Amino acid sequence: MTKKQKIYTILSLALIGLTVILYILFAKQTLCKKVEIKFVNTGNQNIINKEDIKHIVFSEYKNLLGSPIDNVNLSLLEKKIEMYPSVKNADVFKRINGILSINVEQRKPIIRIFTNSGKGFYIDEEGKLMPLSENGTVRILTANGNINYKYSGKNISVFKDSAVTQTIKDLYNSAKYIQSDNFLKAQIEQIYVKNNGEYELVPLAGNQIILLGDMYDYQKKLEHLKQFYLKYLKNHAWKKYKYINLKYHGQIVCTKRQ
Fold it and tell me: What is the pTM of this model?
């Protein structure tokens, strides 16, 4: 390295160090003038809104606006926001111009459940329970019938909370399987839980009832249903059936309309 190169390197490092010091000093004196919230990877779903996030922020920092932005603990605020059941991930960062920026990724529900208690909730693709949205209804698979469970509105997973019933777990597992198959996802719009614990499926097209029975081997039952639709119920032949029964192992028994 030549003498000129050494001098250039030293000056560059000194400039970088000075810039960092000035940024730190400036940031400590910069007052927060705005909270900017952006939703990422939301698609066409709006489960939460900016006011929900602002409520969390200003509950933690009541006098945030007009206060030094450096007072905000970024990692702590991220954790507070991520405690909200409908939030999958939150990134909080501060800008040198006094703006606190928050990027929020919402959870993506795959099933909406209506319980006997009258309180509904969503379950997302990772098995997290979520409160229903006040911003409208998300068009996804629904489940109703004899479902006894009271959702507290907290951050709960079907895998980790002992209070979650087997029925809720079964509904989540079957919904995830249906969600993963484009044909089944487009075909089935509702799961009904009967008083005896068996399950019925309601298709989007037609008014026949699909008798699933219990959840034993539900993957094979749904695969048989898919093949039955694709191979045998072409040209709207499904209209002549009232029931499609998948309860018997390896068989599909259909009941025609009178």
Answer: 0.81
